[in-house]
Amino acid sequence: MLVAVEFSGERKKLPPEATLARKAAAVLADMEKPLSVPEAAQTTTLDFDASLAEFEELARSAGAEIGATLVQHRPRPDPATLIGKGKLEEISGAVGSTNADLVLFDHDLTPSQLRNLEAYLPCRVIDRTQLILDIFARHARTREGQLQVELAQLEYQLPRLAGRGKGMSQLGGGIGTRGPGETQLETDRRKINLRIDHVKRQLESVRRIRRQQRQRREAVPVPVVALVGYTNAGKSTLFNALTEAGVLESSRMFATLDPKLSQLVLPSRRRVLLSDTVGFIRNLPHTLVTSFRATLEEVERAELLLHVRDASSPMLDEQKVQVERVLGELDVKGKPIIEVWNKVDLVSVEDRQHLETSGAGKNRVAVSALTHEGLDRLLAAVDEALTADPIIEMHLRLPQSEGAVMAALEAGAVMGAKRFEGNLAYLTVRGPASLLNRYRRFQEKMESGRNLEKTLPELA
User: Phi/psi class of residue 308: alpha, beta or left (left: φ > 0; alpha: ψ in -120 to 50)?
Assistant: First the structure.
C-alpha cells in the first residue's frame, strides 16, 4: 500500500523557466476549456500527480505489487505519525481489506514516527529513503556498488535502533549481576559502528585502486565525458547508441548503479572515455550522495558533462533543478555542460520545432537514443566543447618510408589534401594536438622547403 502526503507548507517556489512554461500551458488550457482553474491549483496538482506517478514507479522497480494508494493533504506533518490519527485508522482498515503486507510512505520518516507507525499498523512500514536503498541493493552488481549500498543502509539504520522492544533492555540484570552493564541497544550500535568503519576502509581501498587506474589513464591524455541526469532519462540507451557497449537498458528506475566506461571516437578521430553514471531523483537522500562518492568520482574528474534530459517528461524543468542540486553537492556545476534533450521521438512535431528553435545558440542538442536521431550533431558538439586536447590543422611533408607515421595519422586524425611527389608525400591533417605535435618535425621541414622555393625565383 502506498501513502502519499502533501504538506502545503512545503510547496517551494519554482524556477523562472518552469513558471513561464506553466503559465504558457495554463493559457493554452484556458483557450480549450470554458472553465478556468487557478494557477496555484494547477501547479500543485501537476507537482503532486507527477511525484505520485514517480513514487509508484519506484515501488514497481523494487518489485512491489500496488494494492491501493492513499493520499493526504495536510498543512504540516504530525510529529508523532506524520499523517495524524484519523488517516492512520483509515490506513489500518485499508491494510486489512487489501491484505497488504507492506506500507510505503512517499516521505522520510523520523525514527519515532517509524516506531509509532509500526506499533499501530499490522504490517511493515518503509519510507522513501529505505525504498530507494532497497532498489539500489537489487541493482548493485559489482563489489564496489554492494559496499556503497551497505554503507548507506547501515548509516540509515543506526539512528533507528532505539525503542525496538524488550530486546533493547539492560543486559546482565538480576541478583548478583547488577552493574553498569551494556544494553542490547548499545551492543547493536557498537556492532554497526564497527561494520561502518570496516566498509569505509574497504571503500577507501576501492578508491585507491580507482586512483591508480585513473593515473594510468591520465598518462595517455584521454578526456572523460560523463553522462548525468535524472533517473530513467535514457542515459544507458544513449550510452549504448554511442559506444555499442551493450549495457542494461531498462525503463525501471536506477537500472544503472555501477559506473560504466567505454571508449568513444569523435568525428575528429579524437578518442574520449564516455562514462555512464547512476541517475538522480527528487529528494535523493544526502547519505546516498555521500556513500556513492566512489561511483561519482568519474563525474568529478570529467572534462565535460552531458546532462541527459527526458524531453517528453511533464516535469522537465523540475528534474533539471534536482540534477543541478546534486551536481552542486558534488561541486561540479562549474564544468562545461551540454544539455542532451533525449526521447524527441516521443515529442510532437510542434514541440520539437519549438525545442530546436529555443535551443538555438545554446549548448543544447535534441536526440533520440532509440532511433539514433541527432547523434551526429551531439558528437560534433562534444568535439567542439572539449578543450583539453584541441583540434589543430597541420601541413606535413613525409618521406614515403615513414609508413608507421602515415598509419598513425590515418588512424587518429582526419586526412585532408594529399599529393605525392617523388619519394615525398604532402599531407594536410586535422586532428588532436597531442597526436600531431609528435610529428611537428615533418612540418618544419616542409616550411623550410617552401621558404627555399620562394627564395629561388627572387635570386633568379
Answer: beta
